[in-house]
Amino acid sequence: MQNIGILGGGQLGRMLLQAAANYPVTVHILENDPDCPSAHLCHQFTLGDIRDFEAVYNFGKSLDAITIEIENVNIDALEKLESEGVKVYPSPAVLKTIKNKILQKEYYKKHQIPTADYLITENRADLEKAVDFLPAVHKVGEGGYDGKGVQLLRTRDDISKGFDAPAVLEKMVPIHKEIAQMVAINDKGETALYPPVEMLFDPDLNLLDYQLCPAELSTQTLYRVEAIALAVVRNFKSAGIFAVEMFVDKNGDVLVNETAPRVHNSGHHSIEAHYSSQFDMLWRVMLGYPLGNTDPILPSIMVNIIGAEGFSGDVRYEGLEEVLKMENAFVHLYGKKQTKPGRKMGHVTILSKEKQDLLHKSNRVKRTLLPKT
User: Fold this and answer.
1) Letter string b/e over residues 129-157, b meaning 16 or more CB atoms within 10 A of that residue's CB
2) 370-372 and 316-318: which strand pairing?
């Protein structure tokens, strides 16, 4: 029985715990919220800050392996744990690169991975000098997530929205589709690819609204997406599971946007829609088991359930019973006690052979299932 720790106790940790029930593993969670979504599902809960060196080191030193559900963790502690024989998925070196969007872009450039043109700005004064580079996307170097730490700068008038901190100024490119490709890689270097998904975002919240699997891509573009995603992951030289987010233009050219070194929102549909989910796959990687089957069982669409506007406080779910009556609709609520506008509260995955059926049902779910107070 292996002892494996997860840094962070949010919904990703919760879904990892649900998949862990199938394996001989004791799971430990480190989180500073005793009411987090993972707290009541793990074998051992430790209250502590995942950004604190001592908390992470003391949590991990008696474990066989450790993984993350968010990048904002203490990497120095993970490096010390790795040096003492604790396996870390992904390696701390990968986390150091991905955690900082500047280093991440430089990684793509170093390994000749196609990505949008960019400049590095250290402060707002640098940004003001780069006005001729607009329109562009300004991404703060560290600390951004779920659309936070990202600003669209179209004209000189938008400069004041930019960050007065080290950041990436990325040239805005014409996007035909946004694609995410999940890739798993084990300690032997063997890989497994999930079919790419097409992502559609809420333009106001800059959060994933829903995603369609498989993405509609030409064969040539699909091969390009897969080859680029594999190049991103293999150059990390680390086992784990990765979500590579990409832009596809109308000509089929592919640019890498960002990479997440963990289970990811763009893989949630795999719980019902694929033979081996992203969560099952990560346990196979960490426990040394054969990689799972990534084939789809049926096409799918996943809808994020987001906290409704105008409601903050103890949550109740309006329309839940109606959605549960829908054929091949699978509801996942994350166990968060409090809702607020824009907060991820759950997701619904729908399976169907017909794309129009998927789109119709996803819109119905979006209108029906609302976290309120």
Assistant:
1) ebeebbebbbbbbeebeeeebbbebeeee
2) antiparallel
**Cβ neighbours of residue 53 closer than 8 Å, sequence gap 6 or more:** 74, 76, 77
- Considering Cα of 55, then 57, then 58, then 62, what sign does the dihedral take? positive
At 146, is the pLDDT very low, low, confident or very high (cuts 50, 70, 90)?
low
Q: What is the reported pLDDT for 258?
A: 94
Answer yes or no: is 102 within a domain.
no
- CATH number of the domain residue 133 falls in: 3.30.1490.20
Sequence-distant (≥ 6) Cβ neighbours of residue 37 within 8 angstroms:
9, 10, 11, 13, 14, 334, 335, 336
Read off φ and ψ for residue 12, nearest 5 degrees.
-70, -40
Residues 283, 336: one domain? yes
Amino acid sitting at position 303? V
Domain that holds residue 36: 2-89
Query: What pLDDT, on a 0 to 100 scale, did the predictor assign at position 145?
Result: 65
CA dihedral 162, 168, 174, 176 (to 10 degrees): -110
Q: Are residues 156 and 256 in the same domain?
A: no
Q: Are 15 and 268 in contact (CB under 8 A)?
A: yes
Is 42's pLDDT higher than 90? yes
Q: Is residue 105 part of a domain?
A: no
**Interval 297-322 mean pLDDT:** 92
pLDDT of residue 308: 84
| Mean pLDDT, residues 52-76 taken together | 96
Residues 294 and 278 in one domain: yes
**Is 97 within the bounds of a domain?**
no
Q: What is the percent of the chain with per-residue pLDDT over 90, rounded to a whole number?
A: 82
Tell me how many domains the chain contains. Answer: 3
Name the pLDDT band for 245 (thresholds 50, 70, 90): very high
Q: Is 111 inside any structural domain?
A: no
